[in-house]
Design brief:
With 178 residues, this protein is mostly helical. It has a single domain (29-177), classed as Alpha Horseshoe (Serine Threonine Protein Phosphatase 5, Tetratricopeptide repeat), CATH 1.25.40. The chain has helices at residues 2-38, 50-66, 73-86, 90-103, 110-124, 128-141, 148-156, 162-177; strands spanning 41-42, 47-48. Strands 1-2 form a two-stranded antiparallel ribbon. Strand 1 (41-42) and strand 2 (47-48) form a beta hairpin. Helix 4 packs antiparallel against helix 5. 25% of the residues are buried. Residues 1-26 have low confidence and may be disordered.
Length: 178
């Protein structure tokens, strides 16, 4: 009988240790995020610490996967993608935006994810076919969004060089003054 009680106690201790480890790991991720958020900018040069920003991006994504049902999961993913975009890692950004759109299509971050996905294809990858596809999808799904005018303008000017845009602007200005 003592052996059965001992085995039961050991099983309970093992199970509770595993549970505590999971809670500790989730807390560690959250604490690491808070520390990196505070240390993200080099206070002397006022520049973004790229290594810390990259690490923070991965921690945001890790937190979102560990807490997939949490209301803040899509917001953490959006932060991860934003950092990746600003670190000029467009493929990773697009992958994270895609996660938001697939896993949290009804979240308030979904519209931003779709717009920013189009923007990354447009601005960083110069993939105007996909940029046009996602700007069009964005306008169809979110015509009342504060970014709708930006999406429409981006779609209209897709693939144009700065010189072409200046010429168009000057032509429009001269036509309006006549």
């Amino acid at each position: 009988m003592k052996n059965y009680v001992l085995i039961l106690i050991l099983a309970l201790i093992t199970a509770s240790c595993g549970h505590n480890k999971e809670n500790q790991e989730a807390k560690t991720t959250e604490e690491s995020i808070q520390e990196l958020e505070k240390a993200l900018f080099d206070t002397e040069s006022l520049t973004l610490d790229r290594k810390k920003a990259n690490e923070l991006s991965y921690l945001y994504e890790k937190w979102a996967h560990e807490n997939a049902q949490h209301a803040e999961a899509p917001a953490h993913l959006l932060k991860a993608a934003d950092l990746s975009m600003n670190l000029n890692n467009p493929r990773r950004s697009i992958g994270i935006y895609d996660q938001i759109l697939k896993n949290y299509p009804d979240s308030k971050q979904a519209s931003s994810a779709l717009f920013l996905m189009a923007f990354v294809y447009d601005d960083q990858l110069k993939d105007y076919v996909n940029a046009g596809k996602y700007y069009t999808e964005f306008l169809a799904k979110y015509p009342e969004s504060p970014f709708a005018n930006d999406a429409a303008a981006s779609l209209k000017n897709l693939g144009k060089t700065p010189e072409e845009l200046v010429k168009e602007f000057e032509l429009n200005q001269s036509n309006q003054s006549e």
